[in-house]
Amino acid sequence: GAVVSQHPSWVICKSGTSVKIECRSLDFQATTMFWYRQFPKQSLMLMATSNEGSKATYEQGVEKDKFLINHASLTLSTLTVTSAHPEDSSFYICSARDRFDLADSYNEQFFGPGTRLTVL
Amino acid sequence: DAKTTQPTSMDCAEGRAANLPCNHSTISGNEYVYWYRQIHSQGPQYIIHGLKNNETNEMASLIITEDRKSSTLILPHATLRDTAVYYCIVTLTDKLIFGTGTRLQVFP
Q: How do strand B32-38 and strand B18-23 relate by DSSP bridges?
């Protein structure tokens, strides 16, 4: 099956630093990738939609200047948490759609294993 | 996107069928029903999806009522590895909006 990887799997950083998280589709091309955040004991919250070659679309309430998304190729999207603070500590998960799943009705998304961010 | 309602938690004995209900009474005609699950500390995994007809794959069966206002995910022979949070999502677009899901605990 299709595989999505994330790097790093976990990261600990100091408050005020920036952290970059990579999301890669390993065996398929993805024109669209999605970024989610999940706090402990809560559900996934969609943060933004990342489109290859264009600007990301952010969900309401998500600060686009704080969570920078770049989708420069069909297999890689990056999420940079700028000036991270302890409240940004969370589990960040990406997902991707295969670009050849052209049918609008078919929305199988492949999820990465997640990146656990801890900001001290 | 239509809102979904799922029980918070369910238990199932290993080897028995697990039937997970989902209510989506405000579903519109073109919206699909998707099921994903998330095993602890992992990314979600696609299970199955459907529009009107019942669907079956190697993982599960999806039963959608005739009025489409509710559905049931069936894991025919639950194993300990099926312990997870199961999410029922109804959507027309490629955005997946996750609700609180059902925490399924399979016990020996």
A: unpaired
